[in-house]
Design goal:
- This protein is mainly alpha-helical.
- The protein has a single domain, classed as Amino acid/polyamine transporter I (Up-down Bundle), CATH 1.20.1740.
- The protein is built from 18 helices and six strands.
- It has a two-stranded antiparallel sheet with strand order 1-2. It has a two-stranded antiparallel sheet with strand order 3-4.
- The two termini are about 25 Å apart.
């Protein structure tokens, strides 16, 4: 019991980052901000906005973005403080190891694996739908059997239904292509991402600028058809309406779903070991990407819900379809092509981040280091982890629908945010004199608000998400006690006998 709460010192973390398996420091502030924007803007604007407005919140989705954005601001400030103190791979996993101990670090690391894998799968699914919209403007559509997942969740019926399809083939193919690019190297991946970010920002501005002329304010009434709440406690709705399946409905329930749209700013911290000046550039990249994306989200949500009544929004490709409904096929083509590019960059950054968490866990011996800690001798990337993740993402994206994927990933991310905010408070108390190039302002208020807002959104998710999270963490605990605890590098270091002459050292 004493060992599973053992913590790693900040000095140990810095020393490990300088070992032979270190990553290449080549990312500057603009590249890191671009990675954050590349991950945040994509599936959130182009896919999840429509699902949350149609199923959960109506036009009040605009307020849902505000609530989710505030929760992210609190967490982002906490991430920035940690990333400036401990500029190594691993993100929340590494921060938990330095503050809460090995078992808590394992739980968060295992949770992050779920977050990035399932988020990548959901984004790959969204990419597939927009790619098919784009393809359908000038070529015959793919056969139905190859265009969707075999099943989906119908919120009207409150149950799983068959789609008649076999596999979402485009989602599988884009995952395979990006896996190959990511193995090639971080420099190539960052350049590819930057180019795509420029394209999709142009498309987002185009959507806002053109769509504003087609907004009908009558579509914003009623503004909150499902109410302003939607709060549940472990799946039991305590404030607000409920859907056919018992899930909460309302503005807060919408926030819990569209929180998926903000996943990405925290991925900047996973690249701290590849930043040129992590103490300055990581906080800048995290905060800048979050502020820019929040402004754009609010504008796009207002435009889409103003162009089309919320109950007529196409949840598969809401932005492009809104312009199609307004009789603008040329705009539909531009948006579909831009969405394909934009969502590609989201998928790239998500798939880039997860293997860095696995690398940090492998360095600690909690997962097999010869597999997940292997760095390619030429490309300097964790190539085996990248390959394993690519296979898992392809499997989920090909066979599991978006509604299930989006809700599952949110609860894992929110749990990570709660831990990071709590860890800031703990480290302020246990290491008050540690060097902090960036400090969370108004502590402990901001970390406490981060914990409270993230927990509130967790409680607004359907009960199935809690059961999936509990099952995933239970599997993780079995693996930890079976393998990770026995192979822990920290435990092995503590059990080594002292060197000659050290027995009497003070």
């Amino acid at each position: 019991m004493k060992h599973i709460f053992a913590r790693k010192s900040i000095a140990q973390l810095h020393a490990e980052a300088e070992g032979e398996n270190r990553l290449r420091r080549i990312l500057g502030p603009l590249q890191l901000t671009s990675l954050g924007i590349g991950c945040v803007i994509g599936a959130g604007i182009f896919v999840v906005t429509g699902q949350a407005a149609h199923d959960k919140a109506g036009p009040a989705i605009m307020l849902s973005f505000v609530v989710a954005g505030l929760a992210c601001v609190f967490a982002a400030l906490c991430y920035a403080e940690f990333a400036s103190m401990v500029p190594v791979a691993g993100s929340a996993y590494t921060y938990a190891y330095a503050t809460l101990g090995e078992l808590a670090a394992w739980i968060i690391g295992w949770d992050l694996i779920l977050e990035y894998t399932i988020a990548s799968s959901a984004v790959a699914h969204g990419w597939s739908q927009y790619f098919q919209e784009f393809l359908g403007t000038f070529l015959p559509r793919l056969p139905h059997a190859l265009s969707k997942t075999p099943f989906d969740y119908d919120p009207g019926l409150g149950r799983i239904v068959s789609t008649g399809a076999v596999i979402d083939l485009p989602a599988v193919l884009i995952t395979a292509l990006l896996t190959f690019i990511l193995i090639r190297g971080i420099r190539e991946s960052a350049r590819f991402n930057t180019a795509m970010v420029v394209v999709k920002l142009a498309v987002v501005v185009f959507v806002i600028g053109l769509g504003a002329f087609y907004v009908d304010p009558a579509n914003w009434h009623p503004f909150a058809p499902f109410g302003y709440t939607g709060l549940s406690l472990f799946g039991k709705t305590i404030l607000g309406q409920t859907g056919a399946g018992g899930e909460p409905l309302g503005m807060l329930a919408g926030s819990a779903i569209i929180f998926f749209a903000y996943i990405g700013f925290d991925s900047v911290s996973t690249h701290a070991e590849e930043a040129k000046n992590p103490r300055r550039d990581i906080p800048f990249g995290i905060i800048a990407s979050l502020v820019i994306c929040t402004i754009l989200y609010l504008a796009v949500a207002a435009v889409i819900t103003g162009m089309v009544p919320y109950d007529q929004i196409n949840i598969e490709a809401p932005v492009a379809d809104a312009f199609r409904q307004k009789g603008l096929p040329w705009a539909h083509f531009i948006i579909s092509s831009g969405a394909v590019v934009g969502i590609t960059s989201v998928l790239l950054v998500l798939m880039l981040s997860q293997p860095r968490v696995m690398l940090a866990m492998a360095r600690d011996g909690l997962v097999p280091p010869k597999v997940f800690g292997a760095v390619h001798p030429r490309f300097r990337t964790p190539w085996i982890s990248q390959l394993v993740m690519g296979c898992c993402v392809a499997a989920f994206a090909g066979f599991v629908p978006l509604r299930i994927l989006a809700e599952l990933v949110n609860i894992g991310t929110l749990l990570a945010f709660v831990v990071v905010c709590a860890a800031v408070l703990i480290l302020r108390r246990t290491h008050p004199k540690a060097h902090r190039p960036f400090r969370v302002p108004f502590a402990p208020l901001i970390p406490l608000l981060g914990i409270g807002s993230s927990a509130l959104l967790m409680f607004s998710l359907p009960k199935e998400n809690w059961w999936r999270l509990i099952a995933w963490l239970a599997i993780g605990c079995v693996i930890y006690f079976w393998y990770g605890r026995r192979h822990s590098g920290l435990r092995a270091a503590r059990q080594q006998p002292p060197l000659p002459g050290e027995e009497s050292a003070p």
